[in-house]
Amino acid sequence: MRGFLFVCFFLSGGTALVYEVVFLRMLGLVFGHTVHAVATVLIVFMGGLALGSALFGGLTPRIRSPIQAYGWLELGIGAWAALLPMLFAWSAAWYPDLFRALGQSHAVLPWIQFALGSALLLVPTTLMGGTLAVLSQALAEPESRVGRLVGGLYAVNTCGAVVGAAMAGYVLLPSLGNRATIEAAAALNLALGFAALVYGRAHSARSAGIDLAPASESDADAREAPSRDVKPLGVRLTVVALGISGAVSMLYEVTWTRALALVLGSSTYAFTAMLVAFLLGLAGGSALYAWRWGTRQPSPVAFGALQAGIAVLVVPVLLMFERLPELLLAALRWSYAPPFVMWIQLGLSVGVLLPVTLLIGATFPCAVAVATPRAARVGESVGRIYAANTVGAVGGAVLTGFALVPALGVHAAIVVGVVVNLLLAALLTATADLRPAWRWGSAGAALLAAVAVAVGIAPWDPRVMSSGPAIYVGPYLRSAAASSSSIGATLRSQRVLFYRDGRSGTVSVGQSGAHRYLRINGKTEGSTSLDMPTQQLVGHLPLLTHPDPRDVLVIGLGTGVTAGAVARHGIRRLDVVEIEPAVVEAAGRFFGEANGHVLLDPRTRTLVADGRNFLFTTPDHYDVIISEPSNPWISGLASLFSEEFFRLTRAHLSPGGVMVQWIQLYNLRPDDLRMILKTFQGVFPATTVWNISEDLLLVGRTAPGALDLGRVKARFAEGRVGEDLGYPGNGAWPSVLGFFALGETDTARFVEDAERNTDDRLTLEFSAPRALYLDTSRTNQEAIRKARTSPLPELAPGSRGELERADVRYWIGMGCLGRNAMEDALAHFQRALELEPDHKPALLETSRVHFRLGRPEEALAFAQRALDRGPLRARTLYLLGRIHAALKSPDRAKKSFEEALALVPEDQKLRADLLLELKRVEGGKPR
C-alpha cells in the first residue's frame, strides 16, 4: 500500500506544480503582472491550500477510508481543472465589465481580481491542500513515527513538484501550450483518483488506518496529549514559529529569485531553473529529515536549531553572491549553446539555494513531529500545521513584495530574513526545558548573531548587480581580455547613478562619458546615445502618418524619450502606462533633458499599471497606440506580442487609428521575427514595416491608407523631428521615407506561412531566449530586403511629384543609411544626381557609400566631383584623404587631411578624426 500511495502522491505533486505555473500564467494574462495582481493570485492559490489542509485535516478522524477520500480529492481536482480553460475565458470576458460596473475605481480592482481568482482557483486548491493530511492519516499505523511518515510523504510530493516544475517549464508549455498542459495534468489527476478509489475499496479494512475510537476515556486523553516530553507552550510556540518560518522561506524564495535574475537573466528558463532548485532543496531536506531523524521525538529546540542553521547557511551565500556573475561568465566561455546555458542556470541556482532549502525542507516534518507524538491523529495535526505554514508563506510573499523589497532592497530583505531566523532560534531556545546556562547562553548567542548580521554585512555592489552578465557575456569577456583585467574589475568599471530594487524589477541608471543608459534587471532598455534615433522615431512615425492624432497611449515608459517625441506634436492627451514605479522615478530624475521633461507636461498622464490590464479595464480610445516593451526573451513579455494583445489594442483604437509595435532584429531568430509580424499582420492587415538601425517598427492601421507627404512635411516641422534625428532644419522631412522597409503586400507575402504567437501557446516566450547569443541582425535585414518589391510606401495622389526633386531623393537616401541599407541609399543618391548632376551632398554621400562598400576607385571619382569651396569642403577632403590612404597614396592623403584641418578650427570632433588619420598616414600604419 505504501508504495502505491507514494507513487500517487509523487504524481499528484507534479500536477500541483504544473497547475501553479499555468494558473499564474493564465491569470497574469488577464490581471496583469503587477505586484498587486501576482500577490492576489498567490493569496488565492496558497490560501486555498491552507484552507484545504485545515478543513480536511480536521475531518480525518471521521473519515473511514482515507485512501478513497484521497481518490475523491484527486477526482475533484482533475474535474475542476478540466473546466478551468472555459472558466478562464469566462472570467476574461466578465472582468472589464465588472470593473466598469463598479465605477472604474482602481481601489476596487484588487478586490475584483481576488473575487474572480477565488471563483476560479479556490475549489481545486482547497482540494489540493487536503491531500497531504488525508494521505498522512491513510498511512498512519500504531507503530508509525510521525517524523518519518510525514517527512517521507512531504519529500515524495515535493519531488513530484520538482519534476512537474521542470516538465512545465522545459517541455509541456513550450510544446503544448496552456490549455493542453492543463488538460494533460487534469487527465492524470482523474486517473489517480480512479486508481485510488479502486485500490481503496479493495483494501478498505487496511486503508482505514488504525482504530480511531479510543478504548477508554483515559486513552482518549492520552491521544490528545501533545507529548510526555514537550510542554503545551513548546508545541504552540513551534507551530507559531513554523508559520513565521514559512513567511521567511517565502521571503527567501522571492528575494533569491530576484537576485538570481540579475545574474542569470530573466528568461522563463532561468526562472524555471530557480524554481526547480528551490523545490529540490525542500524535497531533499524533508527526505533527509525522514531518513536521519524521523524515528526520534524532537523538541522545540530541534526546530530552533534548524532556524539557526538556515541563518548560518544564508550568510556565506549573501557574502559571496557578488562573485556569481564572474562564475557565470567564466562558465559561458565554453559555450553559448542553449542546453549548456540552461544547465549552467540550473547548476548556479542549485549552488546558491540548495544548502539553505535543505534545512527549510526539514522544518515542516520537524514541526509536525514536535506537535504530534503519536500517529493516531496525524492527519488532523498535519492539516493544522500545514495550514499555519502556508498562511505564513502567504504573509511572507505579500510583505516581501509590497514592503520589504521596495523599501529596503533585495539584499536588506534577505538580511531581515536571517535576523528573523535567529530570533526564532533564540525564542525557542529561551523557552525550552534546558539547563539555564545552555538555555540563556544559546539564546544570547543567537541574539548577538542577529545584531551582527543586521549591522555587519555590507550591501552588494550596484555596479556588479546591475551589469547584466548573462545578457552581455561577449562584450564583458572581450573587454576583460582587451584590458588584461579580471572579469570582476570589468564589471565594476561602470558608473552607476541610480539603483533601486522596485516592485517588479531592479532599475538602474548608468553613465558612460556624456551618455546615460537605463537598465532593468541588468538589461539596457534605453540610452541617450545609440538608442536615441529609434526611441524618437517610434514616437514620431505614427504622428507623421495619422491624419489627425489627438489622443495617444504609450505602453512602456523607459527613458521617456519616445513619450517626449510624441509630446513635441500638437496632441491633446498623452497617457503613459509603466508597470514599475522606479522606472518613472529614473526617467524623471535622470532623463528629463533627453525626454523634454515629458512627465511634467500637463497633457501627460502617467499610470503605474500593467499595459494589458490597463487595456482590459479602460473604456478610453486612442488615435495612436505605441507599444514599446523590452525584448520578448524576458519572461512574461511575449504576451505583449500575442494575437490577443494586438486585438486588445485594436479594440481601443479610434476610427483611422494607428498602432505601432517595436521589435528588435538582433538576438531574434528569423522564424520568430516572422512569427511576430504574422501575429501583428493578422490583426492589422494594413501593416507596413519600418526599419531603423537594428530595430523594426510595425505600423498597423485600422484601414488602408496612402501616405500624404504634404502632411508629413508639416508634422515634421511641428514636431521638430529633424532636430531629434540629427538632421539640420525641416528640409530633411523626406528622410522618414528612407526608413520604409515593407509595404502591406510585401509584409503579407513575407509572413504567409509563419506561425502565430497566441496567449494559449506563447511559443515566442520559449524560443526567443534560445537566440539570446545569436547575431541575427544581418540575417533578418537580408530576409526583409529580399521580401521587398517596392522601395517606397503607397503615396497619396499629388505626393509622387515630390519624388522628382533632387533634395527629396537625397534625404530619402540619408534615411536609408539610418537602417544600414547601403544599396538602397545609393539608388536614391544616384536618382538625385540624375535630377541634379551637381548636387554636392548627394555626390559626397555617394562617394562615402562606395567607400564603405569597399569600392575606393568609384568613391574617388564622386568625391572629386563633390569637392568645391562650399561648407562641405572639409568633410569632402577628409573623405578624400581616407580614399587616398586606401589606394596607397599617402602623400595625397596627407595633403587632404592637412588642408581639411586648416578649414575646421572649431569642429573638435572632426579635428580629432583628422589628426588620428594624419598620424596613421605619417606613421605608415596599415589601415
Brief summary:
This protein folds into four domains: 1-211, MFS general substrate transporter like domains (Growth Hormone, Chain: A), CATH 1.20.1250; 229-372 and 409-493; 528-787, Rossmann fold (3-Layer(aba) Sandwich), CATH 3.40.50.150; 834-923, Tetratricopeptide repeat domain (Serine Threonine Protein Phosphatase 5, Tetratricopeptide repeat, Alpha Horseshoe), CATH 1.25.40. It is 65% helix and 8% strand. It contains 37 helices and twelve strands.
Mind explaining what this structure looks like?
The protein folds into four domains: 1-211, MFS general substrate transporter like domains (Growth Hormone, Chain: A); 229-372 and 409-493; 528-787, Vaccinia Virus protein VP39 (Rossmann fold, 3-Layer(aba) Sandwich), CATH 3.40.50; 834-923, Alpha Horseshoe (Serine Threonine Protein Phosphatase 5, Tetratricopeptide repeat), CATH 1.25.40. The chain is built from 37 helices and twelve strands. The strands form two sheets. It has an eight-stranded mixed sheet with strand order 7-6-5-8-9-11-10-12, sandwiched between helices. The protein has a four-stranded antiparallel sheet with strand order 1-2-3-4.
